[in-house]
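sorry for the late reply, my laptop died twice this morning and i had to redo everyting from scratch. anyway the thing you sent over, i finally got around to it. pasting the sequence first so we're on the same page, its 210 residues, then the predicted structure underneath. double check i copied it right bc i was rushing
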Amino acid sequence: MTDYLPTALRAMWHELPLVAAAGFLVCTASGVVVLLMPGVSPVSVLIGALVIGPVWAAVVATTDSVVREDRGGVWLLLRHLRKYGVAGLEVAAVPAVIAAVALLNQAVYSGPLFAVPVAVSGCATVLALLASCYAFSLRVTAGLRGKTLWLTALHLVARAPMVPLGVLALAFVALLLGTSVTASLLLLAPGPVALFASAGTWTENHALHR
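ok and here's the structure:
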């Protein structure tokens, strides 16, 4: 089985300018969302997808290139930002809409009689978030779209759930440390998170198609 994780780990040092630029772009996009709509609400989630999704797609496309072809750099990231912006919005919109519906259900429904729609939408949100960890790479690098994209991503989640769980856990720990210890960690986190996501996606995708 091809393992891309060693390449991703080496790239954290060799591609340090790329890591820094990725952190700056993602944190800037996140800051715009916070300024426009503070807090967690259906509207803020949708705005987050609109603003952060295209940036994250460009970052993932670049880290895919790093782990698969040993080719990265800040200029490649900027080119990918223009090339994959729409694709990133397409991918981010799916979990964002599902999460917005879940938040809306939680706000509207109350009491034990309405536990089912809240639980269903909550589970769907978790699955969509896990699948999106694979879906960005599958969309921008493999070129998958629509139902094929999400079925493949869900298949990978079922096959190797630890990869998206690890990606989300790493992002959560970085967010926690960045807000409680030092904000500079927030600038350093997106690059390594994307490298880990790319390495995990292509390692498992290669194993799936052996």
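DSSP finds ten helices and no strands in the chain.
thats about all i looked at so far, will dig more tmrw
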